[in-house]
């Protein structure tokens, strides 16, 4: 395993260890139509906890449909605590399956890890047809995972964990929005918040597949790091809770001028005491030109606008890594990343980047501490995002954000040449007298997030060309080989004819 692959597995093992402990305690819980735990299942849970606390076979079952060499499955068997009771490592390549078997024997985990030789989706459909489900599915393909999601959501136990990795970040961050819609069912908008948008697109795609079978997702942890994103979600079955999906999805409207954004939810859920919730359609506010710069909007989505993380779960993962740093060679990076995630505002979708806001009006970049203090002094909440340095997540309205920028420009004037820009002039000449938001105060707020803890939050790429590498090109069958060789001879003959052709130049 390369150093790159080894680093990627560290957070996954920590998350699996915490999930395994929780799942061991909660095994046997039953839920009602609303997705709530039934009171009667509490005694069953306590009974199972007491009788199977020390059983060797009480761990979770894991299925890895795209196993390759099987090293992830072997690491799960050796490092996840409590130990998994069963791990199935699958791959479509016969050569890969043979390699997995040799690695299993070499690491003495034959009693936990077994192999499977099949197409990933076909294997999961087969297990589902036989009534076999797993507590955890680790889906880590090269590129887009969407073609595997339909079978994945069917073969996971109720309350089970799905770990999904996406490495096609160019697609998810808006380079080819039409292709992203084909694969994920959502249109991304190019913006500084593109990495969080990628997470939310992946979550809505997974939720849409789960809803087909009356199931819904509960995100535990959503990470954007290096060249990929990874989401960890629990999945439950409830037809009623599945109907709440529309309230967790929204279209995004982004101004082409000042780059601010707004959301339009797909549905509204109103809780009613003693009965089922009321599901209604939202009111659509007419969208004219942007009130701040008079430019138009681009529309993207739908994206997931529910929570990205379960803070209680993230806290347990932090505690595990902090208490046993020797188990994780990249513990400093994991702690820095998870600490930033833990302090994120969970109910605020997307973020702004201070550099990008200041670039719109061509002013000096405002220090992050100054910007956060201005928001906190006005009574708004603020946090960073783990997805981008110098980022701001806040519940402050965009009118107040531009009010802060205008006051900053008064203290740090821009050149007359920059004022000739119509966009800059429109934003800076807006009157604060019509704004009902609080006054701007740049005094450093005592509760402004500090970087004095020395946490490794945003690590630079450790080597050149840091990325997912190249796609595997192993031919799994004779048919695939014939397909690859198709038209090769014809193309070669055509090239030779072109070389022999002489062109007479008329002078």
From TrEMBL:
Gene3D superfamilies: N2,N2-dimethylguanosine tRNA methyltransferase, C-terminal domain (3.30.56.70), Vaccinia Virus protein VP39 (3.40.50.150). InterPro entries: SAM-dependent_MTases_sf, Trm1, tRNA_met_Trm1_C. Residues 488-497 have a biased composition (Basic residues). Its EC number is 2.1.1.216. The keyword Cytoplasm does not apply. Residues 22-58, 478-497 are annotated as: Disordered. It catalyses: guanosine(26) in tRNA + 2 S-adenosyl-L-methionine = N(2)-dimethylguanosine(26) in tRNA + 2 S-adenosyl-L-homocysteine + 2 H(+). It comes from the Eukaryota. GO terms for cellular component: nucleus. It is an enzyme of class 2 (transferase). Keywords: Methyltransferase, RNA-binding, S-adenosyl-L-methionine, Transferase, tRNA processing, tRNA-binding. The keyword Transferase applies. One of its GO terms (molecular function) is tRNA binding. Pfam families: TRM. Residues 30-48 have a biased composition (Basic and acidic residues). One of its GO terms (biological process) is tRNA N2-guanine methylation. Belongs to the class I-like SAM-binding methyltransferase superfamily. Trm1 family. NCBIfam families: TRM1. PANTHER family: N 2 ,N 2 -DIMETHYLGUANOSINE TRNA METHYLTRANSFERASE, TRNA (GUANINE(26)-N(2))-DIMETHYLTRANSFERASE. This is tRNA (guanine(26)-N(2))-dimethyltransferase.
């Amino acid at each position: 395993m390369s150093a790159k692959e080894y680093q990627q597995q560290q957070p996954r093992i920590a998350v699996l260890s915490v999930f395994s402990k929780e799942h061991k305690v909660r095994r046997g819980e039953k839920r009602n139509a609303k997705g709530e735990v039934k009171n009667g299942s509490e005694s069953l849970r306590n009974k199972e906890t007491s009788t199977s606390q020390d059983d060797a076979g009480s761990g979770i079952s894991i299925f890895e449909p795209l196993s390759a060499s099987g090293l992830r499955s072997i690491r799960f068997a050796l490092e996840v605590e409590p130990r998994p009771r069963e791990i199935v490592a699958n791959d479509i390549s016969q050569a890969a399956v043979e390699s997995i078997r040799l690695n299993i024997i070499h690491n003495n985990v034959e009693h936990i890890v077994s192999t499977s030789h099949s197409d990933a989706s076909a294997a999961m459909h087969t297990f589902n047809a036989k009534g076999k489900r797993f507590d955890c599915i680790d889906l880590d393909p090269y590129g887009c995972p969407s073609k595997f999601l339909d079978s994945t959501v069917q073969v996971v136990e109720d309350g089970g964990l799905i770990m999904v990795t996406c490495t096609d970040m160019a697609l998810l961050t808006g380079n080819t929005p039409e292709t992203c819609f084909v694969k994920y069912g959502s249109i991304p908008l190019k913006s500084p918040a593109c990495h969080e948008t990628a997470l939310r697109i992946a979550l809505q795609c997974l939720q849409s597949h789960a809803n087909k079978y009356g199931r819904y997702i509960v995100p535990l942890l959503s990470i954007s790091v290096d060249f990929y994103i990874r989401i960890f979600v629990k999945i439950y079955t409830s037809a009623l809770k599945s109907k709440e999906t529309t309230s967790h999805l929204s279209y995004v409207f982004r101004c082409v001028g000042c780059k601010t954004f707004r959301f339009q939810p797909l549905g509204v859920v109103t809780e009613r005491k003693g009965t089922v919730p009321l599901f209604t359609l939202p009111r659509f506010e007419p969208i004219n030109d942007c009130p701040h710069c008079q430019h138009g909007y681009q529309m993207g989505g739908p994206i997931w606008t529910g929570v990205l993380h379960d803070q209680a779960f993230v806290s347990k993962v932090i505690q595990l890594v902090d208490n046993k740093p020797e188990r994780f060679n990249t513990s400093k990076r994991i702690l820095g990343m998870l600490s930033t995630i833990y302090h994120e505002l969970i109910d605020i979708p997307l973020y702004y980047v201070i550099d990008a806001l200041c670039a719109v009006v061509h002013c000096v970049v405002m220090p992050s501490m100054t910007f956060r203090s201005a928001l906190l002094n006005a009574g708004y909440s603020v946090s960073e995002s783990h997805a981008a340095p110098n980022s701001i997540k806040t519940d402050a309205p965009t009118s107040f954000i531009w009010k802060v920028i205008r006051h900053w420009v008064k203290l740090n004037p821009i050149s007359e040449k920059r004022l000739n820009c119509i966009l800059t002039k429109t934003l800076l000449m807006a009157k604060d007298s019509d704004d009902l938001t609080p006054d701007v105060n740049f005094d450093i707020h005592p509760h402004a997030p500090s970087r004095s803890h020395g946490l490794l939050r945003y690590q630079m790429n450790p080597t050149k060309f840091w990325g997912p590498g190249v796609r595997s090109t192993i031919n799994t069958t004779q048919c695939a080989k014939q397909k690859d060789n198709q038209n090769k001879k014809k193309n070669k003959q055509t090239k030779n004819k072109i070389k022999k052709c002489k062109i007479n130049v008329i002078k």
